[in-house]
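Researcher: Quick one. three chains, 218 residues in total.
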Amino acid sequence: MKNKLLRVYRRLLKTYGTPDRPGLDPVSEMVSTILSQNTNDTNRDRAYERLRARFPAWEDVRDAPLAEVEEAIRPAGLSAQKAPRIQHALRTVTEKAGRLSLDFLRDLPVEEARAWLTSINGIGPKTAAIILLFSLDMPAFPVDTHVHRVTGRLGIIGPRVSAEQAHAILESLAPPDIYLPLHMLLITHGRRTCHARNPDCSACPITDLCDYYAVSGH
DNA sequence: GCCCAGGTGGGTA
DNA sequence: TACCCACATGGG
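Model:
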């Protein structure tokens, strides 16, 4: 399965090209990722920009009345959950780290850093892995709906494996230096070709590696 | 109108 | 432990 994942990676890289690296500082990444939960990029971006426009710094978001944060992020959806989550996360970081920064996580083993993040209400395995991988260069593999679906169809993870379980499995199968590009490529593939409802298997560059294609014959 | 979007936490068996 | 569900907005 290790070999198969590497073959998938090489093929996706050839098909879609080298993905761009996202570049936010850890605290901004944390807020942005909470906003992105079960939401598309457009709505996430709108909410994030509104938040930045209304509040000069993350300290201001942290200390603002809940209703103002909720109003600012409304376009992202689920704002009644996300606003308290964002403020709670910003406050927890401030209390535990002594200041509003996540840089101290760099000095921890990745599993300790992950456990620290997921202990915060509103930060689950996917959000934690995004923060670790994207903004701290630490070896965590985020599994979102696309990664879960695509690796499941390929047969890299079993049909009964949950998204949460898939984190550890994929981390064991891929070398850490390709976590970031592989993650990005799987999402690109999931969006462009391997859709949730109507996968375009005729345009898929990896049908020869895909269990789903073998069975469904799309 | 319905489905989907880079999930998470709480409830239930 | 393992499912099931609410949560809300906007685009195709």
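The domain at 26-136 of chain A is CATH 1.10.340.30 (Endonuclease III; domain 1).
Researcher: Thanks, that's what I needed.
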